[in-house]
Design a protein that fits this description.
Bound molecules: ribulose-5-phosphate
Order of helices and strands: HEHEHEEEHEEHEEHEEEE
Shape: globular
Number of strands: 13
Strand content: 25-35%
Structural class: alpha/beta
Strand order of the largest sheet: 2-1-3-6-12-13
Largest sheet: 6 strands, mixed
Helix content: 25-40%
Radius of gyration: 17 Å
Distance between the termini: 25 Å
Length: 213
């Protein structure tokens, strides 16, 4: 296993240890979350029910014996755990490298606690573009024009909800202002900036050492 993979595994194991029997758990998407699924399944906790943020996570979780339910009938979760592409010292995140940020944001918002897991390579001093977007297919060209510096992501399949995955490449300085601007464009379903208010804890692994940002 590479050092980067080892760090993902360490952060994921620390987060899996936070889950308690009987909890409703939101599962993110990506290679760090893959380690979480293994660690959580190994704990064999009684009564844990999960919702998945992507078909890939759902498939892997079920294969490992985790109980996965649709997210249509639940209105809250106890805890959600997910990876990130970037995390800055203020705990702003950029997510959506895997194009799953819309569902990930819905799940994180519904959770009492949102735990972010990352290897040390995900920590940044300053958040940089690209910022992932999910756009409504209807009026796509007009939405891209309104956004300015945004392009449809090459080769990215539509999201499971039919959205077009794109990236914003414009200036990223005032993160709150940019998040508000992206939120205000009607054709933007969701963007990959996650504000610190959403984040309960960021577990970053450096080697074997896991620290909370
Ligand atoms: C998917 C995500 C992932 O959490 C993010 O891309 C990190 O992925 P990985 O753990 O594979 O580095 O936001 O939309």
């Amino acid at each position: 296993m590479t050092d980067a993979e080892h760090e993902k595994q360490a952060a994921a194991a620390a987060a899996a240890a936070l889950v308690e029997p009987g909890q409703l758990v939101g599962l993110g998407t990506g290679s760090t979350v893959a380690h979480l699924l293994t660690a959580l399944a190994e704990r064999r906790l009684e009564g844990v029910r999960c919702v998945a943020t992507s078909p890939a996570t759902e498939r892997s979780a079920r294969e490992l014996g985790l109980q996965v339910e649709a997210f249509d009938d639940l209105d809250r979760l106890d805890i959600a755990i997910d990876g990130t592409d970037q995390v800055d010292p203020d705990r702003w995140l950029v997510k959506g490298g895997g194009g799953a940020h819309t569902r990930e944001k819905v799940v994180a918002t519904a959770a009492e606690r949102f735990i972010v897991i990352a290897g040390s390579d995900k920590t940044v001093d300053v958040i940089r573009a690209p910022i992932p977007l999910e756009l409504l297919a209807y009026g796509l060209r007009a939405t891209l024009r309104e956004l300015g510096d945004a392009t449809v992501r090459d080769g990215a399949p539509p999201s499971p909800d039919g959205g077009v995955i794109a990236d914003y490449h414009g200036p990223v300085d005032d993160l709150a202002a940019l998040a508000a601007r992206l939120d205000a464009v009607p054709g933007v379903i969701a963007h990959g900036l996650f504000a610190p208010e959403l984040v309960t804890e960021v577990l970053v692994a450096t080697g074997d050492q896991v620290t909370s940002l």
